[in-house]
Amino acid sequence: MPAKPAPIKKAAKKELPKKAEKAPEPVPEPAPAPEPAAEPAPAEAPPAEGGEAPAEGEAPAAPPAEEPKAPTPPPPDAEAAEAPASGEPKAPSPPPPPPKEPTSAPLDLFIEDKNDTSVTIIWSQPETIGNSGLDGYDVEICKDGAEDWKAVNEELHKSCRYVIKNQTTGDRLKIRVVAVNAGGRSPPVSLPEPILVKEVADRPKVRLPRFLRQRYVAHVGDKINLTIPFTGKPKPVVSWSKNGQPLDTKRVNVRTSDRDSILFIRTSEREDSGVYEMCVKVDDFEDKSSLILQIVELPGPPASLKIVDTWGFNVALEWTVPKDSGNTDITGYTIQKADKKTGDWYTVLENYHRLNATISDLIMGNTYKFRVFAQNKVGISEDAVSCKEEAKILKTGIEYKPPEYHERDVSEAPKFTTALSDRATTVGYSTKLLCSVRGQPKPKIQWMKNQMIIGDDPKYRQICVQGICSLEIRKPGNFDGGVYACRAKNDHGEVTVSCKLEVKQPVIADADKK
Description:
The protein contains three helices and 35 strands.
């Protein structure tokens, strides 16, 4: 059947010509399989005027401007007939992958450190990495005046820091870094100027520790081990002196490393005291620092001691400073006295700072001797200076008659002020029984178990101090329970107290029984 004419759209501005309305469009017939020699059949229906879109409900026709790529394309009517028959659009082919590109050049290449045989460089990663990532870096060098660049790393370097080793001192090197990925090598980043392979000269500096900035004090016989750090490049030349003179290597040892110097004395003596100076030197630059070492010991005794005056119950003393102060200041004196009858020495003044003193509250009729010790930061002198004279406190003409006292009878029969209390304990756990008693004269104490005197049984420990009596039963067993009694007895009577001691079996949990 002939196809119905397409209705005219309301929004169309131009009307179709009458010939197009009257002439029915022929029914499209399926085209035979295309052959190489076949000619395309011409379309019977003319296109609408004005290039307007086909009417609603019509099958879309192939655009006339598109040219087929195949050498023998099918006719446009055949493509229009196949489009509604298929029903589903063909899947678009995937776009080709984008080409891999190298990264941009690394950034901020500069020298971090260098010495006589190596150069340390550091840089930042490229600003643009791209879609293929970053595999690593190649570090390349070339002598100044040549262009034969060669890589110093055998494999790609991952970090942004590299040490170029085994170089010749005095060479001038051009250095550059290239980033590498699957897209190839990036543009290189180079140092602006060739680098001279030589250690950077740094002014030397002695870093004297804080505790050595003041006087360092040690005792005779101590081991001295002082570490003084220093800085400077190249390695500074270190020298020591004592009081402006070279060190005595028999007494003082010096060990110097790249970073510090150690002053070592195995056994210090007073002669080791002095001002030690350390000097570090690099080329024409040098730095010095000094420390004061003071070796101290106990002082000697005061040089002399004498009695200046004696009156009433007082004695005035004077002495002189020690000849040997122990290589440090004297901090005080200690004054002692001794009664000639007993010969026992007692301290009357200590940490005393003056060179004279008055000793008071002496006993009339007694004769006294005196001695003085010196004291410094280390301690008190081992010896003292003694006074050759003796001070005798004379009696006055007043006779002293002591009052007569009648002796009071304070005898008393024993009496327990605190009785024994019943106790309970567990097998294997020590326990103690306590009571207190008084009496005059001091009563004799006896402990009994079941009316049997315990005596010196090592299982029991009996103590009685100032009326407090205790009996300690060490790790009692099943047969140590019973009645314990304490008996106190003197010439005026006897008294006894008692208590019961129960020894229980330990409680065993059900899990332990199983």
